[in-house]
Amino acid sequence: MIEAPPGAGFFATHTVAGLAADLRTGRRSAADLVEHALAEAARSTLNAFVTVDEPGARAAAHRAADELAAGVDRGPLHGIPVAVKDLVDTAGLRTTMGSRHFADRVPDRDAECVRRLREAGAVVVGKTVTHEFAYGPTGDKSAHGPAHNPYRPDAMSGGSSAGSAVAVAAGIVPLAVGTDTGGSVRIPAAACGVTGLRPTYGAVPVDGVFPLSPTLDSVGPLARTIDDCRLMWRVLAGREAPEASTRPVRIGWVEPEAFHPADEAVTAAARKLVPDAETVEVPDARVLLADYRLIQSAEAYEIHAERVARAPELFGDELVARLRVAEQVRGWEYVRALEHRRRAVATVETLFDGQDVLALPTLPITAPPIGARRTSAGGREVDVRAALLSQTSPWSVLGLPALSVPAGLVDGMPAGLQLVANPGGEELLFVVAERLVQPPR
């Protein structure tokens, strides 16, 4: 199991299941857990949070404690602190999308995923830093500043669910909500050494989540451990625990170079967890990367076109430049990318001929320095954004569930293993991950 980052807080050494047991035996209270989270958030210098809701979190913790005392048990997340990406609506709590366009926006209702967490008794502690409008995999461009990697604070956290991954990795909270369009849960999970799931497209409602690319967007959990991530996934998706399975699982290895040059040490760290997996090929691998860029660009520009025309100065320089490029995507290119995706999705079963799960590195590199836009991978100079998205975005195009789990440290920085399954295969991913990764003690 990957070691916690230097100075990690209380929740880096406690699992959700262990905390839930403590709550039910009276060893701890929900108020205790919230005070730990608030203290860790105040102590941290990593800029994980945009807003910390001290009065709201304390009030929710007291309600959770009162319910447990009265015999009302809402499940494994009852009384557990969670953080929510600042792209996801929270009633009465500022939600800015990491942008000056919405600096003072306070929604009047919860996003559906937040409503489900509250219904399960989870306690929302605050809102975490997102890359501006979730339009970036680096996590270092936001109206609120960059979220810093807990393993090396001058390094990127990955994006766009930057603060959510940082808050979990740093032990500020045990669980956090992220969103994932092309890798925005999995990228920061890998960069920060935690577990993150992109569910099957449509498995978790996105009502109340500000869109980036509506035909690609998803909501997913981030947690320190595989089991904690699974517990949160079930609440977000409204799923019950299935019967346990012990059947053998066939794993196919996808060489990361099929998509992008990769650092040999990062690849080796991931490969070490699946040494017996047979190498398989992904048809049209590079075409899927191109499809992602075209689809995301066209849909993102449609969402922001009026803001670009009316108040471009309220965007960060990098984002408005990216939107100007996105504006140039031609209609026929977008339609052609959609048609290629339709055909690829229709034949996705062929990807899994002979195996149940695909495995590959989540990222081809470790987290670069904050602000870097060029780096090296596989002996070549590469674009940082393209590298970070290269191993994750193809599965987003196909709508497949993908789980990133820690694969160890490379020169002191986390590397991740990504597991991909057929649609609806989230529970299988968790089972396989547990078999591959040593659980925390």
**How much of the residues is beta strand, in percent?**
15-25%
Secondary structure: number of strands: 15
Helix content: 25-40%
State the separation between the terminal residues, measured CA to CA.
Answer: 9 Å
Descriptive keywords:
globular, Amidase signature (AS) enzymes, 14 helices, alpha/beta, about 450 residues
Model description:
The protein is an alpha/beta fold. The chain has a domain at 10-237: Amidase signature (AS) enzymes, CATH 3.90.1300. The chain is 36% helix and 17% strand. It has helices spanning 16-25, 30-43, 54-69, 112-119, 162-169, 186-192, 226-237, 264-271, 285-310, 317-326, 331-346, 384-390, 393-397, 426-436; strands at residues 49-52, 81-85, 123-128, 148-149, 152-156, 175-180, 195-198, 218-223, 251-254, 278-280, 357-361, 374-377, 380-383, 402-410, 413-421. Strands 1-3-2-6-8-7-14-15-11-9-10 form an eleven-stranded mixed β-sheet, sandwiched between helices. β2 (81-85), α4 (112-119) and β3 form a beta-alpha-beta unit. α2 (30-43) runs antiparallel to α3, α4 crosses α7 (226-237) and α9 (285-310) packs across α11. The longest helix has 26 residues, at 285-310. The termini are close together. The relative contact order is 0.14. The mean pLDDT is 96.
